[in-house]
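README, section 4: Worked example with a bound small molecule

Sections 1 through 3 covered apo chains. Here we extend the same pipeline to holo records, where the ligand is supplied as SMILES alongside the sequence. The molecule in this example is zinc ion. Nothing else about the input changes; the structure line simply encodes the ligand pose together with the chain.
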Amino acid sequence: METTRVGQRGVVFSFTEPFLTNVYVILGGNRTYICDTFCGPDSMTDLMAWLSENENPAEEMIIFNSHADYDHIWGNCLFKSTIVGHKLCRERAIREGEEALEKYGSHTQGQVKVIPPNLVFEDSVRWTDDGVMFFHTPGHTEDSASCYDERDQVLFVGDNVEHPLPYLNTLDFQTYLNTLDSYRKMDWMVLVTGHDAVQTDSTLLLTNREYISQMIQWDVDVFELDDDALKIHVYNLSKLTLDLVQGKIERKIGEHFAEVMMKIAQASDLEIDDKSMKRLRDVASETQANRL
Ligand SMILES: [Zn+2]
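The generated complex, written as structure tokens:
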């Protein structure tokens, strides 16, 4: 666990196993705010020990979940506190929690019990005395939300911004773009993401924005993507096929999938599981059939 101080009262805790993940803590005068809880109670125990050793955290705690993906909520069970999240985040944690625990069980840090948010909001919720706001920012997932520290001007965006490309879970790219544009309009000095080094400029945000705006047109140039980005793009497409209604796939979508298939054939070291490959091929070939 590494720590990076941000602003006057923020600390980013970075955990590295099984993959780099950040937890952002705001030492508010009245409350201590913990944004995301990583993979389990053990990592949160380490975090709390560091805080009491190095800081003087307010006793009242507010836990915030940026979304219900397991790597952001599994540490909730350590806390007997208010756990804030978007209402869809609570619903997802309840609906998908056990399945995720089974699927990714090897990533648990300690004895995990899935605890959903117990204080939900639709648009936003704000602790005025501490200048801390949580607000709905659908993008990476429908339930994604962000945190803004008004005093330090630090914006925590969870997985809505990620290097090299964000992971997509819905076809509603326009909503995602709107969220990224709303971030651009806000005054922030520091941007904290779920899985990257702390950002002090908009470079990553803008690269992600470009990708999402290209997805709206289905014209991502796959021949321009480097290996890491291609991997994520292919992963995104295979996931999105589940929401594409077979038989009603627009020509430009099919053409894009066909291009991706060509690129995959060239990139010999790209590992794609058979199921995903079949889904990609189905979309690509369906459009080809329509063209005849
Ligand atoms: Zn994540």
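What to look for in the output: The chain has a mean pLDDT of 95. The chain has eight helices and twelve strands.

Section 5 describes how to batch many such records.
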